[in-house]
Amino acid sequence: MKMQDGLSEFIERQLRNRCGMSGADYQVLAHLSEAPEGRLRSFELGQLLRWEKSRLSQHLGRMQNRGLVSRERCLADQRGAVVAITPRGSDLIKVAAPQHVADVRDVLIDHLTATEMAMLVTIGDKVAERLATLEHKH
Amino acid sequence: MKMQDGLSEFIERQLRNRCGMSGADYQVLAHLSEAPEGRLRSFELGQLLRWEKSRLSQHLGRMQNRGLVSRERCLADQRGAVVAITPRGSDLIKVAAPQHVADVRDVLIDHLTATEMAMLVTIGDKVAERLATLEHKH
DNA sequence: CCCATTTGGTTAATGTGTGAACCAGAAGCT
DNA sequence: AGCTTCTGGTTCACACATTAACCAAATGGG
C-alpha cells in the first residue's frame, strides 16, 4: 500500500511540477498521440482508459479549454464526437514522455533486479486477471 | 499500473458498497481505533496518514457530520485539536475490518505463492525506501 | 414502418484532494 | 518584555471522480 500510494503520488507530482499536467492528462495525450492521425472516437478513448463516460466528458472539456485537445462532431454517427490532439498537446506530450519514463526508471525499475522485475510483472498479470474475472461476474 | 489502479478501485468499491465508507474513512478510523482511548492529536493523525493538513481538516469535518468522529479543543496546546472516534465510528470499523481483510486476501494474497508474496514485500520495501530518500532530498 | 431499447455523450449534485492565504497560539531570541 | 518565526488548523478556490438524470441518434424486432 505504501508503495502504491507513494509511486502514484510521486509520478503525479513530477508531471504536475515539470509539465503542468496531471497523470490523467498524460494518459489521454499518450493514447491520442499513438492513434492514427492523433484522433479517436470519444468512446474508444473511454474504453482504452477504462474511465466512466462522464469523467471522460468533463476531463476532455477541461483539456479543450487549455487547448490540448479539440472536439468535432462525427460524420458517420451523428450523435458521436471525435477528439483530436492539438499541436500544443502534441508538443506537450513529446516533452513530457521522456521525463516520465526516466522518472519511472529512477523510482522503480533501476532499483530492482531482473528477477524482481520479472516477478512483479507476473504478479501484476495474476492480479489483473483475478480482477477481470471478478468484474466479469458482475 | 493496471494492478495498482485495479486494486485500489476494487477495494474502494467494496468498502463503499458494503459499509458506506471510503478508503480514506477506513484509514482514519483504523488509526484512531488503535490509538490509546481512541483519540489522537490532529497533527499526529496527519503524520500517520501522510496527508496534507487541509485534506485532513476537511475530511474530519465530513466524518464529524456523519457522526464517526468528534473533535475537542486541546488543553495542553490552546490552538490544537484532539480527534476521537465515536461509538458509531467504532462499530463501523469493527464491522468493516474483517470484510476488508477478506477482500485483500481474495484479490491479492490468495492467488500468490509464498515466494511471490515475499518478493512483493521486498519490492515494496525497496521502492518505499527509494521514495523516502527522494523526499528527504527535498 | 413503428415503437422499444440501446448507445454515445453531456450535465448537475455531491464527495474528495491540493495549494495558497490566513489566523491564533507557541517558541525562540535579544 | 518585545519582536520575529514556527506550528496547528481552518477556509477558499479550484481540479478531479462518481452517480443519476437526461437527450438525441442508432438499432432491432414486430
From TrEMBL, chains A, B:
This is DNA-binding transcriptional regulator, MarR family. One of its GO terms (molecular function) is DNA binding. It comes from Nonomuraea maritima. GO terms for biological process: response to stress. It holds the Pfam family MarR_2. Keywords: DNA-binding. The keyword DNA-binding applies. Residues 1-129 form the HTH marR-type domain. Gene3D superfamilies: Winged helix-like DNA-binding domain superfamily/Winged helix DNA-binding domain. SMART domains: HTH_MARR. InterPro entries: HTH_MarR-typ, MarR/SlyA-like, WH-like_DNA-bd_sf, WH_DNA-bd_sf.
